[in-house]
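Person: I keep going back and forth on a fold encoding question. Show me how you would write down a chain together with its backbone fold. Please set it down just below, with no commentary around it:
Helper:
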Amino acid sequence: QVQLVESGGGLVQAGDSLRLSCVASGRTGSGYVTGWFRLGPGKEREFVATISRGGGITDYADSVKGRFTISRDNAKNTVYLQMNNLKPEDTAVYYCAAGLMGPTRNVWEYDYWGQGTQVTVSS
């Protein structure tokens, strides 16, 4: 079993930056593919970014490409999501998820999920 805890969310203005963290604990073993997803008001859960176990492969949703950067520090069992030039449409609860398949954009291929962290961007 793997536990994931996100942090770093908050209320910011458009154009600001935030860095989210996702710390894994438990049976982290040889590591997991880790993704970030978000659930905005009135929207469906949306893929944001994903990163391979070693960190060498990343993938981003078109809506965040060029503004968000996913990275990981395996020594700390932590995955980060650096979010720059935030927009009001980025407002959502952000979840990290871990799985053995991928990197993938598919929600169903992630086995473990965190509780989420709220990001609110005001205009």
